[in-house]
Amino acid sequence: MIADKMLDKIDEMQNPCxxxxxPVIEKVPKHLLKGxxxxxxxxxxxxxxxxxxxxxxxxxxIVKPQIAFYEKYGVPGLKAFKxxxxxxxxxxxxxxxxxxxxxxxxxxxxxxxxxxxxxQTELGKRPSxxxxxxxxxGYLGSDGLxxxxxxxxxxxxxxxxxxxxxNPSSGELQDRLIDITPEEESKLVSxxxxxxxxxxxxxxxxxxQVNKYAEQDIGKRGYSSIGAVxxxxxxxxAEELRKIMPKSIFLVPGYGAQxxxxxxxxxxxxKDGYGAVVNSSREIIYAYQxxxxxxxxxxxxxxxxxxMIKDIRGALKESGKYPANxxx
Amino acid sequence: MIADKMLDKIDEMQNPCxxxxxPVIEKVPKHLLKGxxxxxxxxxxxxxxxxxxxxxxxxxxIVKPQIAFYEKYGVPGLKAFKxxxxxxxxxxxxxxxxxxxxxxxxxxxxxxxxxxxxxQTELGKRPSxxxxxxxxxGYLGSDGLxxxxxxxxxxxxxxxxxxxxxNPSSGELQDRLIDITPEEESKLVSxxxxxxxxxxxxxxxxxxQVNKYAEQDIGKRGYSSIGAVxxxxxxxxAEELRKIMPKSIFLVPGYGAQxxxxxxxxxxxxKDGYGAVVNSSREIIYAYQxxxxxxxxxxxxxxxxxxMIKDIRGALKESGKYPANxxx
Lengths: 328, 328
Known about the structure:
The structure is a homodimer. Chain A starts with a helix and ends in a 9-residue tail after the last helix. In chain A, strands 1-2-3-6-7-10-11-12 form an 8-stranded parallel beta barrel, surrounded by 7 helices. Chain A has a two-stranded antiparallel sheet with strand order 4-5. Chain A has one domain (about 1-315): TIM Barrel, CATH 3.20.20. The mean pLDDT of chain A is about 95. The first copy, chain A, has helices at about 1-15, 40-55, 70, 75-90, 105-115, 140-155, 170-175, 180-190, 200-215, 235-245, 260-265, 280-285, 295-320; strands at about 15-20, 60-65, 95-100, 120, 125, 135, 160-165, 175-180, 200, 225-230, 250, 275-280. The first copy, chain A, is α/β, with parallel strands linked by helices. Chain A is built from 13 helices and 12 strands. The first copy, chain A, is about 45% helix and about 20% strand. Chains A and B meet through helix 2, helix 3, helix 4, strand 3 and helix 5 of A and helix 2, helix 3, helix 4, strand 3 and helix 5 of B.
């Protein structure tokens, strides 16, 4: 199951860093572009990402392609996405698809089957996009989450459900105070979350929901395949969320380009030094822009990844949340 | 702009019905399947949908392909999706993509550009998936909605933002009572919504947000390109939402197979007889299953579409919400 696999890979690499593969044509080195068709763009994305994967596969455990940047170019774009997923797998990396998919019932099932599980053909079932984990939006309620959770359990895959996102306006809905049931209140009180007037935030309510699913799919290493998205930009919220969802792995966006600092995001980790994976996209993949050599973009990405690893490991060590079996 | 175009098309057809194109291999007539590759499945989906489009294009204004069922089959699936969008356009139909896309900032921009607007290539910008309207999930706040609204305005396209969805568990989050600001309270009070203890539901709060965007993009016919998803299964909620978002067109799922009745969904319409489009998927496209002739699936779909049109037009007439310029 993926939570165990992810933790093993994190131990192998001795860091919980994720490189976000978010290609945009304006920033991809010009020498990779051979023409102006969608196929040419997709081909440039393929070369760009393959080279970055090659440059970090021995030091980074996980990549996170954001599918929006690929499906934007239609069929050729999705083909590049799939090739990049397969290439990362061939290099032993774990692949999180950032797709924020959501729907209900048979439609949620279709997303779960297509992205994580297997799809029906006339002669039987086989995998399709076959990523390891997928980000999911829970606005529609449990009708939208149960099909994903079932597929995760059956195929050893995982999801990260949006709880508290890293963007400035995430609070417009997510930070609002909302009436809760006595059952929810007692869960929060037992987690040590202060409650006033029988209310909590929307993100805490979503966390309670995530935790219910998480508890039903826990691996040998004590973590669940049902995780949560919790932004690096909101450290105090992360501290509460860590308590509400003790078994969930957090996917932490917002580090680097979005302003989240390593000292802030340690709140996303448990005391054992696990429980979160930290993503950086632009600061890694476009690191070459700060050099004078676009031909060596992959080397620049590797150097940026090394700097991130050092920063995150340092912050974990300083906070006392450093895994016991990692080297100093 | 799409709200005007959609209303003109609705007038031309004298009904606001949407046929949902949600193909699943288990239900597509067997004679369309030529093999078991993903290409074969995609080809069956293409033939199935083309035939249904042919059979209803002179009576139905709008189709709504659900992209989950296509992208499930990866690259061949997305190719079929794109071909179906283009084919529906060639027959003069309006195309709503049900994709429930959502993200923030440049990523939301990538979705908006790829699905609704234009994408950058080396020599310039051109359309990619090029649907007319897209469903969008607003959990992430205005960082996730503004890029879509901007693209809609620039390219004359539209979105339907999830407000109150049709599924049984939609209330788990959407019906919760949430604290609101004095400004929000005064908006709701002036809309005639009863407020107690400075709280409203999450769906009403989302509706206030939708309305803000809607007011900034209103066409000649008085409706906005920024619409809302409001389930046919929740008539009393629809009545309130109609007041909060007077200029938004509602995409109404849940009619037919999900149990929503025509007399319930008239609450989604304004007094002028406009303001909503009503979707039915399974009851139309799989109507042949109630006959003994899978070869005539398209004819069965046409008959089911005619029955739906009659039902919806009848309910509008009975409720007094019948457009003044429609025939009896």
